[in-house]
């Protein structure tokens, strides 16, 4: 029985589910749309997770890079009329280059300072998009971004094909994340997360490793942004805003930061929770806010973390028996306590 | 809120027969009901709600022999375009809405991406000319375009105060577009722009800095605007710093609300020109609307509420005229006729006609303040 | 043969000179001990050699190469490993996971290898694991491999820290007070371990206050006081050096008692 | 003066202390011996109120003090000089010492007096009185920690491995200082691994293994106990 | 030149507000080692309470301000007890998220109770004095005076009293504070109370210049963080200098560079400072 519930089987089940999902809802483009947007967020949050969850560097410029990806695709397809795929590729390259440049400077700071430094950089990206009318369309945004160009017979003008396109990239990003986490590189990142000083004495170039991790993270954000632009087809500066990055962070924490399934669990749950809470209109933040606080207090490792620890507890039952033995020997120790003269 | 929200009736609504044999027709709404712009969003929704109640209380409306009652499905989009898009999809898919209101240009643009494909009419509330310039065939623009205000405002201020103007509008896209449109007009009439910046109400904590700079250029007239309250404050700070010229105010700000903010009557607003507040209007339906609104919401309505109210009558009349509640093309074509058929007592505003792009064409009116009193100037 | 050669090594923190003009040579394949009163600059001395701090002046030669300005991670690659005065481990990970990271610097797998799980990646993962197990066996902790570090004893942690240092394949290992806070029986075990390390061709350099242990173990002793070298020599020489007795040992009897 | 009866402490499922009985009389110097992880610090933290006992009772001067908050315990006169020092790293040495006298902050004159006493005990602290505590060496910090504890004018001072990381000369000094502190009327409860030196100055001792007391008696007897010699003294 | 002095005055007013908010934030930051994003909510509610008490009870402005200070101090204490204290041992990111939850909650609550419209707070200090061409409303002068007085009192409290020093002590080592007999819980609550009180004061004196509306906290909080970082976290003098740098650079930047880009100037300033000094201008050498 135990063999059926392995992590791998769980993944396969999820994958199959996500593949057949559109058939169940082929009539409801709204449901598909929300799922697709959710998946796009997961891609971005996977990137955030690699950097914040596994390397221990919380960058709050993540939405900024998401926006850079989105605007790159938007500008390249509308103003330069480039092919979408080329534009997407360029968008990722642009985010990587900018991320690299920022990473070199920003990673000199540590902990809270890094978080706030990047928060401010994110805000600057937002201001720049907001003010640079000529390039970005300013506060009004970019209108009329085309859907992705067809690949052979596959066209991307229907919600279902967009769904599968995004799903494909989601899988790619997830596989990449899993591979990184389970590699020597991933171990290196986690070593930096756990103690940068120690990692250094172990011959790890923490600067370079943090930088590479930062670049992967922004590349994911750029990819997600590019997909977002072609899905929503209208983008405004608010996607670079601070509330966007906090939304990402919220999904990540609730799902479980530093876990592989955290981003997808947190995002899909909250994206739908937000839709559900629409029924409460202006009261919904009165419910949502406290839910968030409670989750953070009572499930500090997020939902994925909570699940893992429950599993861990079940597994360690045997160990507990050993502990009982330990207590028993203490009991006998007490009996042996005697006064020496 | 009082409005049924989207997912309460997730069945196809127009099939549901109410007890009195009327069918239910869903009208969608997506606007800012929380966040910084919530006040504005709520106002627009209130106007719409009032119209829905009035229509339903009087037994609904009849199209092609079938009586319909309206169900209003409203969703919050926090002023974010992508949320508007998601909401619109939801309203179309889950509530089968054929008409979706949104009171901000970002949301309208976001819906324009797919509204023709999904076959629903955008009931857009923004005076930005751009929204009707992209050739979208299922788009309605409710308020008048702001470019019609430019000439008369310019002339009035220039004659009374002089040719030097300082630009200090809100930094929203809307404010920028207004400024872009005003600049050539002001210059055409021989004026000079001595200061040209904008104020971001969402980011600035204090406007006195920029105001000091503007007044340093010795203008005769200040061009200001944005939501009524901060606009009023900008005006007040100009007075604090000793400014004695005129104010050319964008159509977003309403003189009555501004007067409220800085306390008391119109005398502090001396020299301003702007749009006519709803409360100073005397269209056939205005007085009763204001009364009903005050009774229900305990405050004085702005023009947004009034326009939303009347727009729903235009829409239902258009459906009647087109003989369908489904065929969006036919309804669009019948809007002009619908506008003309709005019952007189419901005319909070008089909408004489609707143009081909779906833009309402109310008569032009402006208000100015002289000797502490508001004066209304009716256009032709 | 000289492994590390220090000339005029000086480190200042603001107005305070923590290490002051020290000349010293660390012999290859020997156990060198550094002793001195608290605040004498011993830990700082280690920080300088391992590249954690940059000297204010002076030079550090490692195997004839100038490493005065190389950062810590390069020093580690050249073969300088260290432990910290307060045991410093990845508390949340298992013992084996801790030690595997220790061998990371000898592997070449990059991001590319991780994403495509190349043959190199697989080979190196295996290698790092084996290396880690060897190191754990060496320090006698193989059976604790899967325990979480936070749950093991203080003494075991000290050994894990040494295993971690060993996993980097060092030429020299710098130990900062390895015997602090562990009992006499365990101290003996630790001394054995240090001998074993030297027998395996790795030079050992240790800071220690436990004189009994040091006097038995060390080949060579450096005594620091107020950052400056006050003596250097074999245990016998140091034990009888009047300057050292005055500044540090405080009378011959003490060395025996403690 | 201090009496622990049947005290147990649990961390989750793990039992750190099991039915501990300890008694300390006024003016005594009592030592707790035990290997790493035996539970010495846990006993101290439990007395200090930093850990809550899952069962058992703690009495101080005949009053039950179980469940008191840490600051209450300091006011009662039980002060701990903890392992890991727990200094205020960015404050100066003197500020740290002054904070040690927090509970007597109203008696300005007395504080001044205590400060002078501490400086007399540890002259190095006076030399470094304006330096940040975090910049001092391990040994200096240890002295500061003891000095800070003394500033609270404790009736009972608990010292957790004060000799750890100290130079031999200083260790010797440290033990004589502890003795001095004791002689001047402060009751001392000392946790040590350095059984040899500790038993030389102590009146009585307890031996802790795996969270339980396995042996106790006067220090002479303990010193000559074979098992103890083997485990804690070596040779 | 007149303009320069006018802008200097404007910058001083702005800077004073930033300082008051920034000090509250930096104290809590120092104690919890966590940026309290919900500090903006305290500011927000502080403004509303002053306004509503004035309107509702018809009391004098100063009475309303005092009531508001008390209320917000209490609210801040509750925040500490029910949200941040339970999260004491959680990783730092968690406090940020919890704080965001609080922000969402309070904003919604305020909108629900008092609506979403802008309100103006009118005070007895509405007259204008012009000195050498510089126009100063009495309210603006009040802002500066209050800031100076509050800062001086606070500094005396922290440096000259043991209770104040206990706040600084706890910021550095919570367990250590326990050991010397400081009731850490009391100190944590006290710090939050001070921080809340400062936020209430700032909101109450700045609102008459600006408006009272649900989003007013956002405006201030981001800049307050800039102040805290420039000044070094936990440092009161640093926050004072940071606040002044920011306020004056904003008003002069808007005048002599560009109004549109003046926010960017402030933030770029921060980026440059942190690039040169990764721990802020006044970070301590040790640690
Ligand atoms: N907060 C805690 N949570 C879980 N376990 C703990 C905690 N504190 C102590 N322990 C465990 O309790 C046991 C006793 O620890 P304690 O620190 O009291 O030992 P000690 O005798 O002081 O050892 P040392 O000589 O290393 O200081 C150890 O196994 C330790 O891991
Ligand atoms: N980062 C630093 N900044 C300022 N001063 C420092 C720093 N590190 C060490 N010092 C000072 O340098 C001197 C030497 O410290 P070090 O830690 O090297 O002593 P040590 O010999 O290791 O002492 P111990 O045996 O007590 O560990 C001390 O006076 C200490 O205060
Ligand atoms: Mg040291
Ligand atoms: Mg201990």
TrEMBL record, chain A:
Pfam families reported in the protein's UniProt record: BPD_transp_2 (PF02653)
InterPro entries: ABC_transp_permease (IPR001851), LivM-like (IPR043428)
Entry annotated with the keyword Transmembrane helix: yes
Record's bilayer topology term: Multi-pass membrane protein
Keyword set, alphabetical order: Cell membrane, Membrane, Transmembrane, Transmembrane helix
Keyword S-adenosyl-L-methionine: no
Protein name: Branched-chain amino acid ABC transporter permease
UniProtKB/TrEMBL annotation, chain C:
Single Gene Ontology MF annotation: ATP binding
SUPFAM superfamilies, sorted: P-loop containing nucleoside triphosphate hydrolases
PANTHER family documented for this protein: AMINO ACID ABC TRANSPORTER ATP-BINDING PROTEIN (PTHR45772:SF7), CONSERVED COMPONENT OF ABC TRANSPORTER FOR NATURAL AMINO ACIDS-RELATED (PTHR45772)
Domain ABC transporter positions: 4-251
Highest taxon above the source species: Bacteria
Protein name per the record: ABC transporter ATP-binding protein
Organism: Sporosarcina soli
One Pfam family this sequence matches: ABC_tran
Alphabetical UniProt keywords: ATP-binding, Nucleotide-binding, Transport
InterPro entries in alphabetical order: AAA+_ATPase (IPR003593), ABC_AA/LPS_Transport (IPR051120), ABC_transporter-like_ATP-bd (IPR003439), BCA_ABC_TP_C (IPR032823), P-loop_NTPase (IPR027417)
Gene3D superfamilies: P-loop containing nucleotide triphosphate hydrolases (3.40.50.300)
Automatic annotation (TrEMBL), chain D:
InterPro entries associated with the record: AAA+_ATPase, ABC_transporter-like_ATP-bd, ABC_transporter-like_CS, BCAA_Transport_ATP-bd_LivF, P-loop_NTPase
Residue span(s) of domain ABC transporter: 2-235
Alphabetical list of Gene3D superfamilies matching this protein: P-loop containing nucleotide triphosphate hydrolases
Keywords: Amino-acid transport, ATP-binding, Nucleotide-binding, Transport
Signal peptide: none
Pfam families: ABC_tran (PF00005)
Coiled-coil residue spans: none
GO molecular function: ATP binding
Record SMART domains: AAA
Family (UniProt): Belongs to the ABC transporter superfamily.
PANTHER family associated with the record: HIGH-AFFINITY BRANCHED-CHAIN AMINO ACID TRANSPORT ATP-BINDING PROTEIN LIVF
Descriptive protein name: ABC transporter ATP-binding protein
Automatic annotation (TrEMBL), chain E:
Membrane topology designation: Multi-pass membrane protein
Keywords on record: Amino-acid transport, Cell membrane, Membrane, Transmembrane, Transmembrane helix, Transport
Residues making up the signal peptide according to the UniProt record: none
Taxonomic superkingdom: Bacteria
CDD domains named in the record: TM_PBP1_LivH_like (cd06582)
Keyword set includes Phosphoprotein: no
Chief site of localization: membrane
Subcellular location(s) per record: Cell membrane
Transmembrane segments: 12-38, 58-77, 97-115, 141-158, 178-205, 211-231, 238-258, 264-282
Similarity remark: Belongs to the binding-protein-dependent transport system permease family. LivHM subfamily.
Protein name: Branched-chain amino acid ABC transporter permease
Organism expressing this protein natively: Sporosarcina soli
Organism lineage: Bacteria, Bacillati, Bacillota, Bacilli, Bacillales
């Amino acid at each position: 029985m135990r063999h059926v519930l392995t992590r791998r089987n769980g993944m396969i089940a999820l994958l199959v589910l996500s593949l057949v999902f559109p058939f169940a809802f082929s009539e409801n483009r709204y449901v598909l749309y929300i799922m697709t947007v959710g998946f796009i967020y997961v891609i971005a949050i996977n990137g955030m997770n690699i950097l914040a969850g596994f390397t221990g560097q919380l960058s709050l410029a993540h939405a900024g890079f998401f926006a850079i990806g989105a605007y790159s695709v938007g500008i390249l397809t509308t103003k330069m009329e480039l092919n979408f795929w080329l534009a997407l590729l360029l968008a990722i390259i642009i985010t990587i280059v900018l991320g690299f440049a920022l990473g070199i400077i920003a990673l000199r700071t540590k902990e809270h300072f890094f978080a706030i430094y990047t928060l401010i950089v994110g805000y600057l990206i937002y201001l720049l998009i907001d003010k640079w009318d000529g390039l970005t369309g300013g506060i009004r945004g970019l209108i009329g971004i085309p859907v992705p160009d067809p690949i052979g017979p596959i066209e991307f003008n229907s919600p279902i094909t967009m769904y599968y396109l995004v799903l494909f990239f989601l899988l790619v990003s997830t596989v990449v994340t899993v591979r990184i986490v389970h590699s020597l590189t991933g171990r290196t990142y986690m070593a930096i997360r756990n103690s940068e000083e120690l990692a250094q004495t172990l011959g790890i170039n923490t600067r370079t490793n943090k930088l590479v991790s930062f670049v992967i993270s922004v590349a994911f954000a750029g990819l997600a942004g590019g997909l977002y632009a072609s899905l929503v087809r209208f983008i405004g500066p608010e996607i670079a805003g601070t509330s966007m990055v906090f939304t990402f962070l919220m999904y990540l924490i609730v799902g479980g930061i530093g876990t592989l399934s955290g981003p997808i669990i947190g995002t899909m749950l909250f994206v739908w929770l937000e839709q559900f809470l629409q029924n409460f209109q202006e009261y919904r933040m009165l419910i949502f806010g406290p839910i968030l606080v409670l989750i953070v207090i009572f499930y500090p490792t997020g939902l994925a973390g909570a699940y893992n620890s429950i599993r861990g507890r079940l597994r360690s039952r045997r160990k507990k028996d050993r502990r009982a033995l330990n207590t028993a020997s203490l009991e006998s120790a007490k009996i042996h306590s005697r006064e020496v003269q | 809120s009082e409005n049924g929200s989207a997912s309460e009736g997730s069945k196809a609504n127009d099939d549901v027969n109410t007890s009195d044999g009327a069918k239910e027709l869903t009208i969608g709404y997506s606007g800012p009901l929380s966040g910084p712009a919530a006040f504005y969003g709520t106002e627009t929704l209130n106007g719409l709600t009032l119209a829905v109640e009035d229509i339903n209380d009087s037994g609904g409306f009849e199209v092609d022999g079938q009586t319909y009652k309206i169900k209003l499905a409203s969703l919050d989009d926090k002023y974010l375009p992508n949320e508007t898009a998601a909401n619109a999809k939801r309203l179309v898919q889950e509530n089968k809405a054929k008409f979706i209101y949104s009171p901000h240009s970002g949301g309208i643009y976001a819906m324009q991406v797919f509204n023709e494909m999904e076959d629903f009419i955008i009931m857009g509330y923004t005076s930005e000319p751009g929204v009707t310039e992209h050739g979208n065939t299922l788009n309605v623009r409710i308020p008048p375009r702001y470019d019609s205000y430019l000439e008369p405002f310019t002339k009035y201020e220039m004659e009374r105060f002089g040719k030097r103007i300082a630009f200090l509008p809100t930094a929203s896209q809307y404010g920028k577009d207004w400024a872009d449109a005003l600049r050539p007009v002001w210059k055409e009439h021989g004026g000079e722009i001595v200061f040209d910046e904008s104020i971001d109400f969402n980011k600035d904590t204090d406007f006195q800095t920029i105001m000091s700079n503007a007044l340093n250029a010795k203008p005769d007239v200040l061009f200001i605007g944005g939501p009524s309250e901060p606009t009023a404050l900008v005006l007040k700070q100009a007075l604090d710093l000793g400014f004695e010229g005129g104010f050319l105010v964008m159509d977003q700000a309403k003189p009555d609300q501004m007067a409220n903010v800085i306390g008391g009557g119109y005398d502090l607003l001396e020299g301003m020109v702007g749009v006519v507040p709803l409360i100073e209007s005397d269209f056939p339906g205005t007085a009763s609307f204001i009364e009903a609104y005050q009774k229900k919401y305990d405050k004085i309505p702005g023009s947004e509420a009034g326009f939303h109210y009347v727009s729903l009558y235009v829409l239902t009349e258009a459906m009647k005229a087109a003989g369908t509640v489904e065929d969006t093309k036919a309804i669009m074509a019948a809007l002009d006729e619908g506008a003309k058929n709005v019952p007189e007592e419901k005319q909070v505003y008089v909408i004489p006609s609707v143009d081909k792009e779906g833009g309402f064409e109310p008569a032009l009116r402006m208000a100015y303040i002289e000797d502490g009193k508001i004066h209304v100037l009716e256009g032709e | 043969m000289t492994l590390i050669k220090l000339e005029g090594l000086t480190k200042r923190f603001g107005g305070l000179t923590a290490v002051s003009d020290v000349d010293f040579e660390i012999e290859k394949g020997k156990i060198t001990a550094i002793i001195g009163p608290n605040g004498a600059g011993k830990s700082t001395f280690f920080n300088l050699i391992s590249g954690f701090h940059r000297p204010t002046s002076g030079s550090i030669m490692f195997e004839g190469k100038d490493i005065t300005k190389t950062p810590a991670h390069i020093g580690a690659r050249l073969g300088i490993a260290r432990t910290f005065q307060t045991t410093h481990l990845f508390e949340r990970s298992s013992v084996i996971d801790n030690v595997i990271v220790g061998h990371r610097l000898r592997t070449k797998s990059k991001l590319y290898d991780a994403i495509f799980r190349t043959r190199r990646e697989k080979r190196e993962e295996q290698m790092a694991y084996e290396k880690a197990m060897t190191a754990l066996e060496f320090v006698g902790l193989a059976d604790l491999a899967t325990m979480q570090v936070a749950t093991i004893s203080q003494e075991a942690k000290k050994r894990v820290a040494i295993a971690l240092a060993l996993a980097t394949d060092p030429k020299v290992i710098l130990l900062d007070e390895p015997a602090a806070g562990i009992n006499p029986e365990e101290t003996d075990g630790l001394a054995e371990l240090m001998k074993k390390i030297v027998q395996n061709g790795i030079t050992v350099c240790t800071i220690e206050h436990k004189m009994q242990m040091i006097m038995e173990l060390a080949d060579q002793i450096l005594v620091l006081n107020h950052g400056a070298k006050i003596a250097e020599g074999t245990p016998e020489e140091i034990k009888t050096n009047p300057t050292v007795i005055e500044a540090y040992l405080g009378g011959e009897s003490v060395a025996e008692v403690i | 003066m201090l009496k622990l009866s049947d005290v147990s402490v649990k961390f989750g499922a793990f039992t750190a202390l099991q039915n501990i009985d300890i008694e300390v009389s006024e003016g005594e110097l009592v030592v707790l011996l035990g290997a790493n992880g035996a539970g010495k610090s846990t006993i101290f933290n439990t007395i200090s109120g930093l850990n809550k006992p899952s069962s058992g009772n703690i009495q101080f001067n005949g009053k039950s003090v179980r469940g008191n908050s840490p600051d209450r315990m300091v006011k009662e006169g039980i002060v701990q000089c903890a392992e890991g020092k727990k200094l205020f790293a960015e404050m100066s040495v003197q500020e740290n010492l002054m904070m040690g006298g927090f509970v007597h902050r109203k008696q300005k004159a007395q504080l001044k007096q205590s400060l002078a006493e501490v400086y007399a005990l540890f002259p190095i602290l006076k030399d470094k009185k304006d330096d940040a505590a975090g910049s001092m060496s391990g040994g200096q910090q240890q002295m500061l920690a003891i000095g800070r504890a003394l500033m609270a004018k404790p009736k009972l001072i608990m010292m957790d491995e004060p000799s750890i990381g100290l130079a031999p000369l200083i260790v010797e000094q440290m033990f004589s200082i502890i003795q001095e502190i004791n002689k001047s009327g402060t009751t001392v409860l000392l946790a040590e691994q350095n059984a040899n030196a500790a038993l030389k100055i102590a009146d009585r001792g307890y031996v802790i293994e795996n969270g339980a007391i396995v042996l106790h008696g006067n220090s002479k007897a303990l010193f000559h106990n074979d098992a103890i010699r083997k485990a804690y003294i070596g040779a | 030149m007149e303009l320069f002095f006018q802008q200097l005055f404007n910058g001083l007013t702005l800077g004073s507000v930033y300082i008051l908010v920034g000090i509250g934030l930096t104290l809590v930051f120092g104690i919890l080692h966590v940026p309290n994003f919900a500090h903006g909510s305290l500011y927000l509610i502080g403004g509303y309470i002053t306004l509503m008490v004035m309107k509702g009870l018809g009391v004098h402005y100063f009475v309303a301000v005092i009531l508001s200070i008390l209320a917000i101090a209490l609210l801040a204490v509750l925040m500490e007890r029910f949200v941040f204290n339970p999260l004491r041992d959680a990783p730092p990111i968690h406090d940020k998220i919890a704080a965001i939850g609080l922000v969402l909650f309070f904003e919604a609550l305020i909108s629900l109770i008092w609506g979403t419209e802008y309100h103006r707070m009118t005070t007895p200090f509405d007259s204008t004095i012009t000195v050498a061409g510089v126009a100063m409303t009495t309210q603006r002068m009040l802002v500066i005076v209050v800031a100076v007085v509050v800062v001086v009192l606070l500094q005396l409290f922290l440096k000259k009293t043991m209770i104040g020093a206990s706040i600084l002590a706890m910021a550095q080592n919570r367990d250590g504070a326990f050991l010397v007999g400081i009731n850490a819980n009391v100190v944590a609550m006290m710090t939050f109370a001070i921080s809340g009180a400062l936020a209430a004061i700032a909101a109450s004196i700045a609102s008459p210049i600006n408006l009272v509306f649900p989003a007013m906290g956002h405006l201030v909080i981001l800049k307050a963080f800039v102040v805290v970082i420039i000044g070094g976290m936990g440092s009161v003098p640093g926050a004072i200098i940071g606040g002044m740098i920011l306020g004056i650079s904003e008003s002069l930047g808007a005048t002599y560079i560009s109004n549109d880009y003046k926010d960017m100037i402030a933030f770029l300033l921060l980026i440059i400072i942190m690039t040169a000094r990764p721990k802020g201008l006044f970070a301590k050498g040790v640690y």
